[in-house]
Amino acid sequence: MNMPGNDDRFDDAMRRLHAQAVPQVSAGTMAELHRRRHAALAGEARPRRLFGWPVATAFASVLAVAIVLGIGLQDASHDPATAPAIASADATPADYDEAFDALDENPDFFVWLASSDATMLAME
């Protein structure tokens, strides 16, 4: 419940905490606060940097076009006919089970997976 007495006690407690904290503020910080307060009261406007949004928008547009067109993503020397097959048609589920069993039996893989090398590789 919000009672009038509670608001007054809260305000008094906050004023006491503020009064205790003000002497602990450094002189440099206090000078900067006073300078900014006087600048705000005098109506001095900060120089606005409006060129940031157009530059960011242009960069995002160029990036979107590059992604759509696939610039830099295709290698001219890449020939799909010479690429090795990722999964052959004659692979059986038993082949996959053997591969998974080999990973389960090799704890070094999981140690490497938890290392910072794996994290750095994933970030690339």
Structural features:
124 residues; mainly alpha
Give an overview of the whole structure.
With 124 residues, the chain is mainly alpha-helical. Among the domains are: 30 residues; 33 residues, no CATH class. Helices cover 65% and strands 0% of the residues. The protein has 6 helices and no strands. The protein is elongated, with a radius of gyration of 32 Å. The model has no long low-confidence stretch (mean pLDDT 77).
- Count of strand segments: 0
What gross morphology would you assign? elongated
**Unreliable runs, pLDDT <50, ≥5 residues?**
none
Give Rg in angstroms: 32 Å
Helix content: 55-70%
Alpha plus pi helix count: 6
- What structural class do you assign from the helix and strand content? mainly alpha
Strand percent estimate: under 5%
Cα-to-Cα separation, first versus last residue? 55 Å
- What pattern of helices and strands is seen along the backbone? HHHHHH
Largest pleated sheet: none
Mean pLDDT: 77
Give a brief rundown of this model.
The two termini are 55 Å apart.
Write the layout of secondary structure elements.
Elements (H helix, E strand, L loop, with lengths): L3 H18 L5 H16 L9 H18 L23 H13 L1 H7 L2 H8 L1
